[in-house]
Amino acid sequence: MIEFREVSKVYPDSDAPAVRELSFTIPDGEICVLVGPSGCGKTTTMRMVNRLIEPSSGEILIDGEPNTAMSGTELRRSIGYAIQQIGLFPHRTIAENIATVPALLNWSRDRIRSRVDELLELVGLEPDRYRDRYPAELSGGQQQRVGVARAMAADPPIMLMDEPFGAVDPITRERLQDEFLNIQQNIRKTVVFVTHDIDEAIKLGDRIAILEQGGTLARYDTPENILSEPGSEFVASFIGGDRVLKRLSLTRVGEVELEPPNGEKDLPRIDERMTLRDALSELLGRGAGKGVVTGDGGVRGAISIDAIREMFRTGETPRD
Ligand SMILES: Nc1ncnc2c1ncn2[C@@H]1O[C@H](COP(=O)(O)OP(=O)(O)OP(=O)(O)O)[C@@H](O)[C@H]1O
Predict the structure, then answer these.
(1) CB of 39 sitting under 6 A from ligand 1
(2) Domains of the chain
(3) pLDDT tens per residue, range 272-285
(4) How far is the CA of 43 from the centre of ligand 1 (A)?
(5) For residues 83-88, average pLDDT
(6) Which residue has the CA at smallest separation from atom 28 of ligand 1?
(7) Which EC number(s) does the record attach to this protein (predicted)?
(8) From the CB of 40, is ligand 1 less than 6 Å away?
(9) Across residues 253-280, what is the average pLDDT?
(10) What does the pLDDT average to over 225-249?
(11) Which atom of ligand 1 is nearest to the CA of 196?
């Protein structure tokens, strides 16, 4: 658990705080996304957790202990850190890059090797193919996977991720986000994630902290609550006009009550893992009013555009 208690940061030679009296708590095992316009203090907030930046006042507690209880170096070895610029060492192999922190922690060679292979598998890179390559021999998306693997190497309970999927094309980015959510389902880290992309925040965050210019917290809540009730003009304009569609992207087809399948043939197939937003767009794109929902066990039911519309007219989705 990470708790911010009235944390402020004023940089030297600056008269206005970059971050102002932030107080909020990130529960164990959750993803908290810091989002907001450029310069609102997201990166500053995140870097105070591992003390790459020291607060001017207030404190940050990790599991109830101030993060000043140990040295900054020790603290940083116990917290994973992945950044957009990736920061892979160009003259070290992928395996050596991933092993950076385990090597600092003096793990044995065997332990390091098996951990590297395990992580490469986890992020979808075949160990035999990639472990001895150099970063320049990988695509941008692959390098970002390595960046995430490196941050997870010593299995830290907390991960800080600063726009880790920022520098890739939208399709790769979606894939990296999906992979990351799948991994998180198993590893349940406490994650602080910085982005300026509200869609990414909604997709990944268990909770979202929306920061305003001047480093104040405009809202800290679940995506569902923020989308159903933005609460202020700033938040409403930041999340944009398509709130209903965004809410559709929070719910997967398999989570809603389906209609019984009536054996209709020729209807589009909708995978139960699709979001309602993607299902809607698939149905609209195919000119079909209804689709057959399938899962691992075969046909699960049917879903219609009318049913999706009704759910969002009444606001009754299972997640509410
Ligand atoms: N080392 C520094 N010295 C002085 N001012 C700084 C320093 N780092 C950041 N700032 C200022 O503090 C404010 C917050 O910066 P920060 O990088 O935390 O914002 P951000 O929300 O992460 O921005 P972006 O989305 O553009 O990366 C900005 O006004 C920035 O100019």
Answers:
(1) yes
(2) 2-78+157-241 (3.40.50.300), 252-314 (3.10.580.10)
(3) 999 898 899 899 88
(4) 7
(5) 75
(6) 39
(7) 7.6.2.9
(8) yes
(9) 87
(10) 86
(11) 25
Q: What is the pLDDT of residue 319?
A: 46
Provide the b/e sequence for 120-138 (b: ≥16 CB within 10 Å): bebbebebeebbeeebeeb
Spatial CA neighbour of 20 closest among 2, 45, 51: 45
Residue with tokens 């197939």: 269
Q: Which residue minimizes the CA distance to atom 29 of ligand 1?
A: 39
Closest alpha carbon to 227 in 239, 209, 211, 212: 239
Closest by CA position to 53, among listed 105, 17, 99: 17
Q: Which two tokens stand for residue 308?
A: 């999706």
Model pLDDT for residues 194-205, shown as the tens digit of each residue: 998 898 999 999
Query: Are 31 and 204 in contact, with CB atoms under 8 Å apart?
Result: yes
Any ligand 1 atom below 6 A from CB of 44: yes
Cβ of residue 106 lying under 6 Å from some atom of ligand 1: no
The protein residue whose alpha carbon is closest to atom 25 in ligand 1 is 38
Spatial contact of 258 and 301, defined as CB atoms under 8 Å apart: yes
In degrees to the nearest 10, what's the CA dihedral of 154, 156, 162, 167?
40
